[in-house]
Amino acid sequence: MGCQGGHHPVQRPPTGALFGVRVDWSATVSLRDLRHRIEDSLFVLVTRLIRVLPHRAIYHIGSAVGRGLLSFGRRRRLMRANLALVFPDRDPAERAQIARQCASRLGGIFFDRASADRFSHEEMLCRFTFEGWEHVERAQAAGKTLFLISGHFGAFDHLVLPLARRLGRVHMVVQAQTNPHTRRRMDAMRERMGVTLLPRSGGGPRMLKLLRAGETVGMAIDQRVRPWDGILVAFLGSLGWVSPMPAYLALQTGACVLPMFCTIGADGRYQARVKAPVSVDDLGDDPVVELTRRMLDPIEREIRRAPEEWFWIHDRWRLIWQHHEPQSLDRLRRQSSLPEGHEVAERDRRVADELHTLITRDRLEATGNFAVAGGSVNRRSAVAIEVARAAVESGLVVRHFDRGELADRLRAAESAGELAQELRRWDACALLVLTAAEDTQLPDDDPWTLKMLVHRRGRGSVLAALPTSALPPQWLAGASAVELETDDDRAAADFRTADSRATNPQVADAQAAGPPAASAARADS
């Protein structure tokens, strides 16, 4: 039998048991499915063993297991890289200690969750203490729908049961497990607690319908999303792709956004905390981006307060991090499509350096628009390409387009019904550079360049070396424009200098003698 998708079908053994768990084998199974079934059998075996052991010792056993499993390999390297990105000023030994504590916490929380299934719902509820529940009561008294947000912080998954008992049925957004057999077991466990599960992918319309109907919805909002599904927002000091869906839902429904967290205390009890509602006042020109930032703020504060509680093994900034390895820089140079030549004039080098500084600083805070104005088309293009080369060398993902080339590409994509996909294709690009072969206005039959500029808002920076009259006014209003010195300006400056020499012999003698020592020192500096 041939293989499909790289998975080789193999014969299954007869129906029987694996590791003491009865498995329903069928005629054939792919190697991936076989691996999933073995993993699921091991999961069931481990959870059964956990429930046999005393609950008071389970957390400590899980901590030791987590510390052992996450003390080497890729996960350990990822934890340390994330911690170095978020806490660059902390001592490496301190960051390593946080990584070890995080590994212990993850193991202990997993074992504690598996062991807690031995208790009845009433016994579990007695183990919770709540702080800040008055925020929920005030929102309910005001007739507000509840939209609960959290992060992968502490024992956040333990909140399912008390919330369902206190609020009635709660609809929770969950990330599907890659193993379908384990996913079914975990979903069934959550549903027994009175929770309706919503898929993370494609669940937006259903969440909107539920919130408008007055139902309670909850989700964790701190994980990475794909560039074409998200917006760039600073989180823990670095830009990352974040879903705009929670902010959009809150704005559309007027729901009360309540951050919630849960940790396990030293006595083994669960400490749940409800924070003050996220304000939706004065959101500015881009309410979705601003509200997303506000929703992430309480999660960031909790992480900085107790960093060992967060899920540091998540590759949160994978699509954003700068690349510094030689092989990565070579790939970035090839992908940038920057033309050869275009040497920047010496008098324009200051402008190029200023632009590069602005864009590099901008990448650490937010995304922005930049324009090179004045001068000739060749000088503007040279400056833009010089800035783009410097950005590539600093490790940013850059793409260069001629305006006409970009318009043709987007026009063809729209004709094929793939304009949205084409626009999203460059969402992981940090800097998009637009130049033009000649000084032409933006023609009326070219709406595609404007669509690209509008689409890039909140997703990445744009550097346009086009005539300012060819750029949309609404785009220029929020752009940082750098003006090149024109040839006429230089000629006028030379004329004024020559005129001052002719009319003031003392100025001419002083300029001929050279600057004083203090002026020379300033010039050297």
Task: Write out the strand line-up for the largest beta sheet, numbering strands in chain order.
Answer: 5-13-12-6-9-7-8
Counted by DSSP, the helix tally is 21
Give me the secondary-structure category: alpha/beta
**In angstroms, what separates the terminal alpha carbons?**
76 Å
Q: Major β-sheet, in short?
A: 7 strands, mixed
| Counted beta strands | 18
Describe, in plain words, how this protein is organized in 3D.
- It is a single chain.
- This protein has 525 residues and is an alpha/beta fold.
- Helices cover 49% and strands 16% of the residues.
- It has helices spanning 31-52, 55-69, 73-86, 92-115, 121-125, 134-141, 160-167, 180-192, 204-212, 245-253, 287-305, 326-336, 349-365, 377-393, 403-415, 419-424, 448-455, 473-477, 487-503, 505-513, 517-524; strands spanning 10-11, 16-18, 21-23, 28-29, 128-131, 146-150, 170-174, 195-199, 216-220, 231-235, 238-242, 256-264, 270-274, 369-373, 398-402, 431-435, 461-464, 479-483.
- The strands form 5 sheets. Strands 5-13-12-6-9-7-8 form a 7-stranded mixed beta sheet, sandwiched between helices. The protein has a 5-stranded parallel beta sheet with strand order 15-16-17-14-18. The chain has a two-stranded antiparallel ribbon with strand order 1-4.
- Strand 16 (431-435), helix 17 and strand 17 (461-464) form a beta-alpha-beta unit.
- The longest helix is centred in the N-terminal third of the chain and has 24 residues, at 92-115.
- It is elongated, with a radius of gyration of 29 Å.
- The N and C termini lie far apart (76 Å).
- 32% of the residues are buried.
- The model is unreliable at 1-15, 362-366 and 489-525 (pLDDT under 50).
